[in-house]
Amino acid sequence: MNQESKSLENKQIRFVTFHPSFSYEDFIEGLTAKETDNGSVSYKMDPGIFKDVCTDAKEAYRQTPEGQQAPPYVLIIDEINRGNLAKIFGETITQLELDKRLDADEEVELSLAHSGDPFVVPPNLYLIGTMNTADQSISLVDAALRRRFGFLSFPPEYEVFEEAYDFKEMDPELTRVLEASITALEIINRNILDTGELGKGKQVGHSYLLNHESVDDVVNAWRFNILPLLDEYYFGDIERLQSVLFETESSALFDVERREIDTFDRETLLAELEGLQTRSAYDV
């Protein structure tokens, strides 16, 4: 996507984030009020981002000579499952299907609910939605919208660390802590998959261990990002967390009595991560 997006003009790529209060009026079209010079209020029908990008993509499609491929337009919807999708897409949900788009065999042209304007989705428009399946506070995509999208999973990619870090040229202590962290992350994610309690969507992403320039950066990533995430997965059940993910009944990273993540230094973290590696290797 990154390489392809470089060849696209800025106007061809749009970005929007869904949230619980995001509405049809934000996405398709809605009335906005504006005070006039004489103090009265006038109302104007403003297009939403989806209607805007459809209009631009349709114009580009119409201007493309026959036999040539129309320039692609992309709408990226971040956190797509945080919004009420049925309300946001409204009547346009049917038009997402390829055979319902402009010039398709079963083209569907609708009259929009507010303005009554004719509306059709062009074939050169691509919608990309991102979602965090680990977040239990939000719903997954419903069946009606799910069948109109293809789904791709993006599990942790440990190979990126070789590209991100020059381990041979780095400070030896930082190298040791990072390598121990990467191995521990792989073991923890393997345990998440093996236990069956959490599911593959709860694996810890590799981004937590990227862009660290010091040992303290790595320590803080564990203290304030990775461990709190795991603690949340187990709803504060430290004993269960230690047993399942860290393969031990006691870890210096946690305060079992207070049922919270403990404060720890680099030496403690390194000892615990390397200890996990030793236990895991022994189990194998």
From TrEMBL:
<feature type="domain" description="ATPase dynein-related AAA">
    <location>
        <begin position="6"/>
        <end position="149"/>
    </location>
</feature>
<dbReference type="InterPro" id="IPR027417">
    <property type="entry name" value="P-loop_NTPase"/>
</dbReference>
<dbReference type="GO" id="GO:0005524">
    <property type="term" value="F:ATP binding"/>
</dbReference>
<dbReference type="InterPro" id="IPR052934">
    <property type="entry name" value="Methyl-DNA_Rec/Restrict_Enz"/>
</dbReference>
<dbReference type="InterPro" id="IPR011704">
    <property type="entry name" value="ATPase_dyneun-rel_AAA"/>
</dbReference>
<dbReference type="Pfam" id="PF07728">
    <property type="entry name" value="AAA_5"/>
</dbReference>
<dbReference type="GO" id="GO:0016887">
    <property type="term" value="F:ATP hydrolysis activity"/>
</dbReference>
<protein>
    <submittedName>
        <fullName>ATPase associated with various cellular activities AAA_5</fullName>
    </submittedName>
</protein>
